[in-house]
Amino acid sequence: MSDNHATPDQHPEQGTLATEVGYIPVEQQLAELIAKHAEVSDAYLRAKAEAENTRRRADEEIAKARKFAIESFADSLLPVKDSLEAAIAVHVGKPDTPVETVLEGVHATLRQLSSALERNKVLEINPAAGVKFDPNQHQAISMVPADQEANTVVGVLQKGYLIADRVLRPALVTVAAPK
């Protein structure tokens, strides 16, 4: 064989390459590659723009959620405020209102407030005497001698509260001292 023979991948005419179908001029291949590149670049830019738009919309939604997250809670508390204002208005207009009537209104308002808190997943932490001290939900104010097991709650000085299983404020408790 001489060196003048073409290899199977190379056409004797310069500027063409062999394919399964035959020989395609390099210029045609270049044009096809340029077109494919433009198509891929366009798809990439569109995908990148869509990702940016999605990220921007998500950021806006997060900002709105943070800004208005308390809206439902505030709406639940408005009737409580209305009740308190009505009680003050009644008392100012009739300073001789019986204490029982005022106390009845206070209890009704407390029920409204408790209901509003409960609807918004704010739950009381009010451990009964004898419950094991839990440092995740209780804050010990003092240890006192008691006729119960050590490190158990003797009394609650101030109720605590959870909001969606997270401690908003621990219950202030006294705890039984070791014997």
3D architecture notes:
The protein is α+β, with helices and mostly antiparallel strands. 49% of the residues lie in helices and 21% in strands. The chain has three helices and eight strands; from the N terminus they run ββαααββββββ. The chain has a three-stranded antiparallel β-sheet with strand order 3-6-7. Strands 4-8-5 form a three-stranded mixed β-sheet, with no helix packed on it. The N terminus is likely disordered.
List its traits.
single chain, 179 residues, alpha+beta, three-stranded mixed sheet, 3 helices, 8 strands, elongated, disordered N terminus
Got a strand count? 8
Distance between the termini: 107 Å
Which structural class best describes the helix and strand composition? alpha+beta
Catalogue the unreliable spans.
Answer: 1-8
Percent range for β-strand residues: 15-25%
Radius of gyration: 39 Å
Shape: elongated
H and E order = EEHHHEEEEEE
**Mean model confidence by pLDDT:** 87
The largest beta-sheet arranges its strands as 3-6-7
Helix proportion? 40-55%
Number of helices: 3
Describe the sheet with the most strands: 3 strands, antiparallel
